[in-house]
Design a protein that fits this description.
By secondary structure, the protein is mainly β. It contains one helix and eight strands; from the N terminus they run H-E-E-E-E-E-E-E-E. The strands form two sheets. The chain has a six-stranded antiparallel beta sheet with strand order 1-2-3-6-7-8, covered by helices on one side. Strands 4-5 form a two-stranded antiparallel sheet.
């Protein structure tokens, strides 16, 4: 049975009120090495098992790891994919009791080319 974590938060409708928006350059995409570095920081140097690694033409977009029997971390790049969608590039932790997810939350977000670990 597949386990899924929610990355989506309710999308808020924003009105610009006629204010011009600043155009930004192309969005940077985390490298696999960069994501691995955050995973290693989150698991405090402990061992983890890769569950699933998915890439597209732009690189890594989904990576699930498992820590022991009750914790999984999921990286997902901002976008919509067959496996789900993410409104921002984040790492999320999910806690399990057996096969049942019992909680979870965001633990890191990729903002302007830098990881912010909570």
């Amino acid at each position: 049975m597949a386990k899924y974590s929610k990355f989506e938060s309710p999308q808020e409708e924003k009105e610009d009120g006629g204010v011009a928006r600043e155009e930004k350059g192309p969005e940077t995409i985390p490298t696999m090495e960069g994501v691995r570095s955050v995973f290693e920081q989150l698991v405090e140097g402990g061992d983890y098992e890769d569950i699933r690694v998915m890439e597209d033409g732009d690189g890594l977009y989904l990576w699930d790891i498992k820590i022991g029997e009750g914790t999984e971390y999921t990286y997902m790049k901002k976008g919509t994919y067959e496996q789900g969608s993410a409104s921002a590039t984040k790492i999320y932790v999910t806690f399990f009791d057996g096969d049942m997810p019992v909680g979870g939350h965001d633990v890191a977000e990729y903002i302007d080319g830098e990881w912010k670990v909570y």
